[in-house]
Amino acid sequence: MPQNKKEGLFFTTIVCFSMVMTMSAYNLLLHGQFSLSNLFGGLVPGFIVAFLLDVLVVSSPAKKIAFALPVNKEKKIQLIIAVSSCMVLGMVFFMSMYGVVMQFGFTKNFLSYYIGAFATNLIMALPLQLLVVGPVCRMILRKSRQRSWLKEKI
């Protein structure tokens, strides 16, 4: 877990980018629209929206909820699972909305499209975050701590 603001920003960036790229590819595959041009064409705007939502909207409430859950805060793995799960729920809530709006706009079928997208995205995003992206990004963070550029000056 990040220990200072620079580490937090670095960790948020790599997790967000990894999740946006993977979930974008997943959704494009589901809709039969996968191509590298479609993937990379939507990657930058999707990343910007996801990053802003993460930092400005989802992160603080998700962490408050996770820390309020009855988990053993002395056990780092339980805390990581709680925070990651709350973050995924919040991000899937908003990014599914973003995806539906970008693909279909606000139509009379918006709610049904959104519910379908939310369920489909949650099924992929939660295990992806808990089993792949989270562990890999935490490993990258640990290895990056050896670099002086992540250490805050006191």
From TrEMBL:
Q: Which domain of life is it from?
A: Bacteria
**Is Transmembrane helix a UniProt keyword of this protein?**
yes
Keyword list, A-Z: Membrane, Transmembrane, Transmembrane helix
Which InterPro entries does the entry link to? DUF2798 (IPR021529)
Q: Which residue ranges traverse the bilayer?
A: 9-30, 36-58, 79-101, 113-141
One Pfam family of this chain: DUF2798
The molecule here is called: DUF2798 domain-containing protein
